[in-house]
Specification:
One of its GO terms (biological process) is vacuole organization. By secondary structure, the chain is mainly alpha-helical. Helices cover 57% and strands 3% of the residues. The radius of gyration is 14 Å and the shape is globular.
Length: 133
């Protein structure tokens, strides 16, 4: 199993975060806080599921104060529960939402790249992750 001490885990999470932040449009909340990929994931999952257990878990953690921290916790939760590919795929289904959140250079806006990314993430479902959540 992959654990918190794994160098590959840190590289994987950094690459995932890079993909999710690449060409992300700058958006602000009502109170002026900058939105991040966490907000994109919450919005995308809310469209298709009433309550995603990963979102509920992350929002229950009082220590997480920033969207980036919540996004990182969500990625870890999804890796442990083998839900990353499915969760991200749900967020990527709506082309209007993608255009609302991402500029044209985002790999998520290219159907071929999006399929390649999701295919790779589905391959991670056979990997066991034992991470501290």
């Amino acid at each position: 199993p992959v654990t918190d001490g794994s160098r590959e885990l840190h590289s994987l999470c950094a690459q995932l975060e890079f993909l999710l932040q690449f060409d992300l449009k700058e958006k602000r909340s009502f109170f002026g806080q900058r939105k991040d990929y966490w907000d994109f994931l919450c919005q995308g999952l809310a469209r298709y599921r009433q309550e995603h257990k990963g979102i509920l878990f992350v929002t229950s953690l009082d220590k997480l104060k920033t969207p980036v921290g919540r996004g990182r916790a969500f990625l870890r939760y999804c890796l442990v529960h083998r839900q990353l590919a499915e969760s991200l795929q749900l967020c990527l289904l709506d082309p209007e939402s993608l255009c609302e959140w991402y500029y044209a250079r985002s790999p998520f806006l290219c159907p071929q790249r999006r399929a390649e990314i999701l295919g790779s993430l589905y391959e991670l479902d056979c990997v066991t992750f034992h991470l501290a959540l």
